[in-house]
Structure formats: structure tokens, C-alpha cells
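#struct-help
A.M.: can someone run this one for me? Single chain, 307 residues.
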Amino acid sequence: MIDAPGIYTIPASVYHADPVAAAPSLSRSIAKQLIQASPAHAYVAHPRLGGQQQSAATSDDAMDIGSAVHSGFLDGEDIIVHVPFKTFQSNAAKEMRDDALQQGKIPLKTKDRDKALRIIEALETFRTQTGLFTKGKPEQSLIWDEGDHWARCRVDWLPDDPAAPLLDLKTTEGLATLQAWSRRCFDVGADIQASMYGRGCEFIRGEPPEGMLFVVVEQNLPHGIRVFGLDPVSLEMGAARAAAARAVWVQCMRANSWPGYARETEWVLPPPWIVRGWEESKSGGFARAVEDTAFIERMIAAGQWGG
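D.P.: on it. C-alpha cells below:
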């Protein structure tokens, strides 16, 4: 257990188990649960409250590939165990998978192992061409005392220069385009992450970094890589959401109460694209269908709709 603020090089399993001695600490993933779900969800997800520690491997091939890429590229650690089968259905494949999990490794089938190695190779080329992921340390755990609670974060790449941007590596099954990342980044809490990680660095290093850069690599060929930052509006929203999460966390910890969803009925509004689609459709057969039942009968008899 860790009893002092600082920057620590510890295994991911130790970090995710929450090693803060003083009290359960707030992390980005728990803050996201508080904001996007409820305190009850945060409680069951926290390893020191209602949660259970998970192994590095999952039942999701894409997530396992992402974890293997993180370890291989950032740490230079090979945690892949090659399972030379197309599926885990045979007894031999299951035995190899279970043995790997017991060792804290990630079992990957041949196709997934080859994909992970190609992604790591693409990232190494990216590192050489851009200079990113060079001057600093990978997988650094920051732990700090906010006064009314403790917090922690794990930075994929912590630059030696305290003013330099933090780096976060993400893999995607989709495209590394601005449109795709714009949809995904708020779902994964990237705005909260940028705020919390920068705040932790300022507490420990005495100055905030110049933001956070998200390096997104595609899992599928050609393994395209793009770098994204958050604009001032996104950063402001992330800071507000992180502050709200801190406030809820402190109150729930003090009261030892973790409420779930509200009991009141919530009313669903149609999103803009549904409204636009309906307005456009009213110019066709649906508009006539409201007032002219004979029209419906003719269309059904003709085996077509519209006109």
C-alpha cells in the first residue's frame, strides 16, 4: 500500500486494485461512472468498495489486443501467449488460455497475435517519425491528496518535461478519423481524463502539463494513426464534469451511501435526426396515409409504397 503522494512505477494490477493506504481513491474510470451512470455503478466498479479485480485479459478480442499493444509498445513487455488455434473451443486451446491467465498473461489466437504485433510495429515507426513516446516514462501511476479525498491516475506516457503534453494511447476497431474520435472520446471520458490527469500532475509536479494528446491507432490494416487534442470548450466541459465527480465522490464517501438511478419517470425527446427524417417522410406516402385510407389500400394492392 502507498501512503504518500508521488509518482510510482507499479504493475497495472497493483494500480487497478487501488494501492492508496489512507482511503479508497478516485480514479478516472470511477469518475466517469459517477457522471455517466450513478454512484451505485461507481461503488460496484471500485476495487476497494464493491468491485472485484479483473485479470488483464477479457472475453473481448479487441480489448485483449489493445492491452497487448499497450504492454508491448509502451513497456516493451511481451505479455502475449500465442494460442495457435482459430478459436478457444478445443480443450487444448482452453488449457493454453487458462494457463496464460494464471500467469497474468494475455492469450491471443494466431490471427489476433499477428494483428497485435503489426500494430506495435506501426507504432514503433510512428515513434521514430514523430519523436512522440521518446522522452519520458511509460505507465506511471500518480497518487495525490486533494485534502478531502485521495485520487490516482495512470499515465500511458509521462514526459520528462513537466510542461509537455501527456500522451495517451488508444486502439480502435474503427477509423482514426476526427469524426469517429469526436463521437468516441466523450463516451470513454477522455475529457474527464484530460482534466484529472493534468490536475494530478499539477499537484505532484507543481505545474500543469500543456494538455493531453490522444494517439489513436486502428486495429485493422493499414493500422492508421492519428493524434488528437481537446479544444478549449472540451477541456472546460471536462474540468466541470471532473469537478462534479469529485463533489459526488466526497459526499458519498462521507455518508457511505451510494444511490442508484432516480425513481422519477424521464421523458424521451426525439433526437434531431429523427425529427428531420419524419419531416422529410411527410412529403411522401405517410402524409396521405393519415387522411386517406383508400390510398393505403391501393398501395398495398399494388405491392409498393409512395407516390
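A.M.: thanks! The mean pLDDT is 91.
D.P.: also worth noting: The first helix runs from residue 12 to 16.
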